[in-house]
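FAQ
Q: What does a multi-component entry look like?
A: The components come first, one per line:
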Amino acid sequence: MLRIPCPHCGERDYTEFRYAGDASKVRPKHGTDDVKTWHDFVFLFDNPKGPHREYWQHVLGCRQWLVLERNTATNEVMGAVLARTREAS
Amino acid sequence: MTERYSALALARHALTGAPWERAWRAAEPRKSYDVVIIGGGGHGLATAYYLAKNHGITNVAVIEKSYIGSGNVGRNTTLIRSNYQMPGNTQFFEHSLQLWEGLSHELNYNAMVSQRGQIVLAHSPSQLDVVARKGNTMLLNGIDSELLDRGDVMRLLPYLDYSKDCRFPIYGGIIQRRAGTVRHDAVAWGYARAASNLGVDIIENCEVTGFVRDGERITGVETTKGRVLAGRTGIAVAGHTSAVAAMAGLRLPVESHILQAFVTEPIKPFVHHVISFGAELFYISQSDKGGLVFGGHIDGFNTYTQRGQLPKIQTVAECAVALIPGISRLRLLRHWGGIQDMTPDGSPFIGRTPLRDLYLNGGWCYQGFKATPASGWCFAHTIAHEDEHPLVRHMRLDRFERGNGLDEYGLGLWTYRQ
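Then the predicted structure of the entire assembly, as tokens:
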């Protein structure tokens, strides 16, 4: 069972969370009119076999958004921070 | 050329005790080939076979990082069918089903193609309308399909839950009688043997570690057994497509996810068809050994580990028991996971890439196994003619840029994340 360390609620089963994709992508600036830039943001993934930063939402807990660091080759979890903390820094 | 398999050959070996020779040559890589296919799964081997058979290109190598049959070709639930309804998909998967029908003779290898019929169930009047429409699309394309009412389903599948208070009442369904199952290992071995007989080198335990580039052109691959030059290179490594494409500097619309499959302890013949539940993604059939084989959704987050998460076993088992209450006491014998490429629209890619002489076959989502013969057929054509086969023109890699997503289920993109 994948266990996710929620900064608020402690370590919980992954079934309490909802996966929401790659967190390393940077959303293009509002007003960007280049379609290729949006295409790359929406559709393309690095999809690495190894360390991966990804969004999870603790939907059956505190409902906060987290950024989890996990190795996709082993499912080893390196840690999680609140997404808003990371976005602010 | 290996010995032809026949009843006579079987009798000869049984009487004389003569050992069978290995089914395909153990090849070591040469310096260069006309075509190198990365990935010795079903799709890669089928591609090599049809390159040799249909296009006369026999100077071909298939490079496999492990052994033949170790990947997804041996990890699926072995179903074949052609009940699709998007223009393009319908014809492609029907071509595949027709190739399945003749495959054992074509390859001189018993793939145990069993056309036992697949039934898609409908659990509400509106869902019955939806499957009827699917059936009509199939009929208009010359594909067999029959509409079933509740009584028909009760006669065919008397063991489903028809009780008054069942959670998902059964209103009817459609059956494609030509659909069924195949022995998946035999598909890998049969294509490998047939391709090897036509001169293709099948190189096992050889991992591709990089590409040889000449500007915007790919001229070969670096492997753990040295550099191999290639006139053209094809990627057929679904599950790991992103990792291999990244070596060529390509980013793809692909995330790798794990799909689990399950088999129960063997019981006497009970489930005589392939059944697709309509209330959830769940499908079940019975293997020749008697085990019930079934599967459901992906686990839900990207991973390359071939070990599934336990909670998924519970949700899939709930589907099984909701559909067939009588199997609730059966024990699971095995369960396993395969890594599959998930794409935004749930459809695959076959075609050219932005790099010259590099071709891509991947993104198969849930549907790789049934597509194996047509995928190889069309990918071989695409490589041989440097242009997509008409049956796969809609599967181009740049379809999202062009606004041409191939949304088979009519539910929009990213359904696999919901």
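Q: Is there any commentary attached?
A: Sometimes. For this entry: The domain at 3-25+34-88 of chain A is CATH 3.30.2270.10 (Folate-binding fold).
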